[in-house]
Design the sequence.
């Protein structure tokens, strides 16, 4: 591809007051208004004793400005100034400057962050009522919980401390902050964020997990999950508090277990004939029997967890064993065992497949890291707590946007939605005082964009039945 024109030094000018680069935010923020986001922020977020008097004024439109910026790709406070460029103020009302939004964020404390976390759950329920956000939730729904460590730098980040994280399969010590997240998904739907909480980097992964699991299950039910709910987590969440929270909420659990002495004794007690090959990378079917020939096998045994406490639970300990790649030439195979504890009623192999799909939460982390959580922008812990919650709200809003755009966009990554749907340039015109957006001709994704436009701008709320 070559340039068609020969440009001079003065051939480029930033002088168009009617041009915007994020026209896709019009249907996105229309959806936000239709689901009551600003009203929820107004109702639930209140800062009674601000350090700066003007800092707590009008929190709802300021937070809505931040969420809109995140939907457009903002990963720092300064990035939301994009919304004020060109014709942005012609498209949106109450667009605040980055400095004003930053002042509000620095007023947040732990209690204010919990208010915003309540908005996250309420808005997810509203999005589920407005769109088919969780298809299949009437059959089975998954609540996944996990944490990540986001690296930070410098000496003035409140709460930053050294914690363990895994990079390329190896445990490393890294300075950062540790968000804990709970997601909701189904067999047919991509995950959405039900809860998120920022913690110090050295905080154990399982701290606060039980209360978040309880809240996520309640949110899932309010969002239409009338079927079975399965709580999944890795070994950091294989503790009695998380299991008890799932049982009290009448949900199933599937949590990995740390290999302690009791677990090892249970694994050793599994009969040699109980192991069944399962589908695994490189597995093939036996042409005669139709069974899998694989380097992975599963078996189960009854197991009582937390036996020394009043919360003892007897359920199934399912173990997946794989051949240790470090010993390929041994006379007898050397196995690595991966146990998890579950009260699922699925077959052993199916329960193993279901449990391993817990990794779907990593796709949410990847989306957030490739967007709003690319940086933890503030030195104040409260500001960063509000930041991660706004990022979660923006993630759910983009997920609902993709569903309304149709096709494969319902499961598309946030970066894909930003590229195809949100970050589209347009020129604003007002012939006969009617606002019109002039979009690029031959836009490759015009069809899903207009589908989204029809499903938001052209949406008519259902009328209540006459009494």
Sequence:
């Amino acid at each position: 591809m070559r340039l068609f024109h020969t440009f001079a030094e003065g051939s480029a000018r930033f002088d168009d007051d009617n041009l915007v680069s994020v026209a896709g935010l019009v249907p996105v923020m229309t959806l936000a208004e239709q689901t009551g986001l600003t009203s929820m922020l107004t109702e639930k977020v209140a800062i009674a004793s601000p350090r700066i008097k003007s800092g707590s004024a009008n929190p709802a439109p300021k937070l809505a400005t931040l969420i809109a910026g995140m939907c457009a790709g903002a990963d720092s406070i300064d990035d939301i100034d994009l919304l004020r460029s060109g014709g942005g103020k012609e498209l949106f009302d109450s667009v605040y400057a980055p400095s004003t939004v930053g002042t509000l964020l620095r007023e947040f404390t732990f209690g204010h962050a919990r208010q915003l976390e309540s908005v996250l759950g309420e808005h997810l329920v509203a999005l589920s009522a407005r769109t088919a956000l969780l298809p299949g939730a009437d059959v089975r729904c998954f609540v996944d919980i996990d944490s990540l460590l986001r690296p930070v730098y410098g000496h003035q980040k409140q709460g930053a401390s050294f914690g363990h994280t895994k990079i390329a399969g190896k445990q490393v010590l890294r300075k950062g902050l540790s968000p804990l997240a709970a997601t909701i998904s189904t067999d047919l739907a991509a995950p959405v964020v039900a809860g998120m909480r920022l913690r110090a980097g050295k905080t154990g992964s399982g701290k606060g997990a039980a209360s978040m699991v309880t809240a996520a299950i309640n949110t899932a039910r309010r969002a239409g999950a009338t079927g079975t709910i399965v709580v999944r987590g890795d070994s950091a969440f294989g503790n009695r508090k998380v299991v008890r929270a799932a049982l009290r909420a009448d949900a199933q659990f599937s949590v990995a277990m740390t290999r302690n002495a009791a677990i090892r004794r249970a694994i050793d007690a599994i009969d040699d004939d109980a192991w069944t090959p399962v589908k695994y990378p490189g597995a093939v079917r036996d042409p005669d029997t139709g069974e899998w020939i694989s380097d992975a096998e599963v078996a189960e045994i009854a197991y009582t967890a937390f036996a020394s406490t009043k919360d003892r639970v007897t359920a199934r300990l399912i173990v997946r064993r794989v051949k240790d790649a470090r010993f390929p030439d041994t006379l007898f195979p050397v196995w690595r065992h991966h146990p998890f504890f579950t009260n699922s009623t699925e077959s052993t192999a199916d329960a193993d497949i279901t449990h391993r799909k817990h990794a779907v939460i990593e796709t949410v982390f990847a989306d957030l890291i490739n967007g709003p959580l690319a940086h933890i922008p503030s030195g104040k812990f409260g500001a960063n707590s509000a930041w991660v919650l706004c990022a979660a709200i923006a993630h759910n809003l983009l997920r609902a946007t993709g569903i309304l755009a149709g096709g494969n966009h319902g499961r598309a990554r946030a970066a894909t939605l930003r590229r195809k749907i949100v970050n589209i340039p347009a020129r604003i015109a007002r012939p006969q005082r009617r606002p019109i957006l002039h979009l690029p001709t031959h836009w490759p994704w015009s069809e899903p964009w207009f589908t989204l436009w029809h499903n938001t701008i052209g949406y008519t709320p259902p009328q209540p039945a006459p009494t």
